[in-house]
Design brief:
Helix content is 39%, strand content 20%. It contains twelve helices and twelve strands. The structure holds 1,4-dihydronicotinamide adenine dinucleotide and magnesium ion. The site of 1,4-dihydronicotinamide adenine dinucleotide has 22 residues, from helix 1 and helix 4. It comes from Shimazuella alba.
């Protein structure tokens, strides 16, 4: 009996639709090979949703997402919607989905593919062997704390953003990071600013309490400024990095440029259950949208993360990852990482190569 799964497919805007088509071509092969029965539920979000139904995140999309086994998301946004008022901006779709689905963690694996050493801005010997994952807290911290903007008695403006964490919010993300470390090199780096921030001192205390449940994992606390340096100095020494929302936002973008093109990097956002939200790290790339040249790797690898985290199918996930590695190793590239012009492929050709190797 084939395993049934309901997958909500949200291509979004710009290259989102192109990389989604490419990833689905690969997923169709996965369906046959690993005996699944996938139902793809197409849904609208982002600029295209604002244009057609008036809001970036239609209720219908949210309803579909809540009932799904997993959500594949392309990218949203573009110059056309840049001047829309905040509540109609495409990224509201992302924030709304994360919040409504309780997706409190964001996972970004950073892996150097053999053959792409020269695409990095760092020296090949520094990035050799890079293979780590950034686990970022996604629904708490300063992005969600109370915001204020007022005038003081002298008429000068002041503003504040509150950085607040509850113990349970820290504990659930930290446990997830420990579990990931257990399945990897068993080395966890918890990043904070405990020398000045009270919320970081609580963060550190929770890590130290929780670590007794994971005795096989080595834990290191690192201040965020130091981590920013170590990421470019010795990136290959990390395994799992766990940190709060804003630090994670900044560090994961820094980490994203270590291994070459942003078109290579997948992500997963997870909550308590197996429902997950899978999207490339990149945006809608308006400068290349519609040309069929976007790198579909990030979307394909996001789909592999779906197989791993939502469907608990490690075999299918790693087979997809190995197929991508092989295609890159054979020298095939999209234009963002090109080496050899006769091996430059379009978005769909690249996906078809990957599909043929699964
Ligand atoms: P971007 O990631 O869309 O593009 C940055 C650069 O990377 C561009 O030169 C682009 O051509 C290139 N690039 C991105 N993805 C690529 C791919 N798959 N293959 C080859 N090259 C690729 O970021 P940018 O330009 O800052 O934002 C463009 C739009 O996307 C904005 O409206 C922004 O708000 C939105 N955005 C959406 C995100 C999301 O949906 N999660 C995340 C980031 C930005
Ligand atoms: Mg960011």
């Amino acid at each position: 009996m084939a395993t049934k799964k309901d997958i909500v497919v949200i291509p979004g805007d710009g290259v989102g639709t192109e990389v989604m088509d490419a990833a689905l071509a690969v997923l169709d092969v996965v369906q046959n090979k690993y005996n699944y029965d996938f139902t793809y539920h197409q849904a609208l979000a982002g600029g295209i949703a604002t244009d057609t139904v008036g809001v970036p995140l239609p209720d219908e999309t949210l309803d579909k997402a809540k009932k799904a086994d997993a959500i594949l998301f392309g990218a949203v946004g573009g110059p056309k919607w840049d001047n829309h008022p905040p509540h109609l901006r495409p990224e509201q779709a992302l924030l709304g989905l994360r919040k409504a689905l309780g997706l409190f963690s964001n996972l970004r694996p950073i892996v150097l593919f053999s053959g792409l050493e020269d695409s990095s801005s760092l020296k090949a010997e520094v990035i050799q062997g890079v293979d780590f994952v950034v686990v970022r807290e996604l629904t708490g911290g300063i992005y969600f704390g109370e915001k204020q903007r007022q005038k003081d008695n002298n008429g000068y403006e002041y503003a504040s953003d509150v950085l607040l964490y509850h113990e349970h919010e820290i504990e659930r993300i930290v446990r997830l990071a420990f579990q990931m470390a257990q399945n990897r090199k068993k080395q966890l780096t918890s990043v904070d600013k405990a020398n000045v921030l009270e919320s970081s001192r609580l963060w550190r205390a929770v890590v130290d309490r929780v670590k007794t449940d994971y005795p096989d994992v080595t834990v290191e606390h690192m201040l965020v400024d130091n981590c920013a340096m170590q990421l470019v100095r010795r990136p290959a020494s990390f395994d799992v990095i766990v940190t709060e929302n804003m630090f994670g936002d900044i560090l994961s973008d820094e980490a994203a440029i270590l291994t070459g093109s942003i078109g290579m990097l997948p992500s997963a956002s997870l909550g308590e259950g197996t429902l997950g939200f899978y999207e490339p790290v990149h945006g809608s790339a308006p400068d290349i949208a519609g040309l069929g040249i976007a790198n579909p790797t990030a979307m394909i690898l996001s789909m592999a993360m779906m197989l791993r985290h939502s469907f608990q199918d490690e075999k299918a996930a790693s087979d997809v990852e190995k197929a991508v590695e092989k295609v890159v190793h054979m020298g095939y590239r999209t234009q963002d990482t090109k080496v050899d012009s006769d091996k430059t492929l379009t978005t769909m050709q690249f996906a078809e190569k990957v599909a043929s190797l699964i």
